[in-house]
Specification:
Layout: H1 2-25, E1 41-44, E2 47-50, E3 55-61, E4 64-69, H2 75-84, E5 92-93, E6 98-101, H3 107-144, H4 150-183
Antiparallel strand pairs: 1-2, 3-4, 4-6, 5-6
Length: 185
């Protein structure tokens, strides 16, 4: 029973780390990245579709994202969706594809992005700590109900703390890499 609780907590913590990793991919760093525009959704024949399902997205160089829709009639729709996305990028439509030049970040904007990254990190850490608390509560209940011994409960809580520490360390590493990427000139 305790092994299942530990495995469940570990899996949920891994999902929190992965969610943070995905969130950080979408934060602009001054370099072109396909991940920057992947969350953008466009109107396609009456339904919302992810940009990646209606166009080919590539990075021809470190400062440009190229978006080539499979249906040329979507150029205007994609252009508007990019403008509304809040990325702060100006799409250049040449009639066949859209180029997104990635301007260099100002020092002030870099500092703002680091704050955003840290806020995402703190939210992810809170999620991991909540998972730890829930797992420990379950162990204490199981101990109280006589399903596991006090020693098993204590050992399992220590293991959950080790998992928590490891996942938070992984998140800190992600933060360190992202901050370095943002602050690179």
């Amino acid at each position: 029973m305790t092994k299942e609780m530990i495995a469940d907590a570990d899996l949920r913590m891994k999902k929190s780390v992965e969610a943070l990793r995905q969130e950080l991919l979408h934060i602009r760093t001054g370099k072109a990245s396909v991940a920057l525009v992947e969350p953008i959704r466009v109107e396609y024949y009456g339904t919302e579709a992810p940009l990646s399902q209606v166009a080919s997205i590539s990075t021809p160089d470190a400062k440009t994202i190229a978006i080539q829709p499979w249906d040329k009639t979507l150029l205007g729709v994609i252009e508007k969706a990019i403008q509304k996305s809040g990325l702060g990028l100006t799409p250049l439509n040449n009639g066949t594809f859209i180029r997104l030049p990635i301007p260099p970040l100002t020092e002030e904007r870099r500092r703002e992005l680091v704050k955003v990254v840290r806020r995402h990190l703190e939210e992810a850490k809170v999620a991991v700590r909540n998972i730890r608390r829930e797992a420990n509560d379950s162990l204490k209940r199981a101990e109280k109900d006589g399903d596991i011994t006090e020693d098993d409960s204590h050992t399992s809580q220590e293991k959950i703390q080790e998992l928590t520490d490891q996942h938070i360390k992984d998140m800190d590493r992600l933060l360190e890499l992202k901050e370095k990427e943002i602050m690179e000139v």
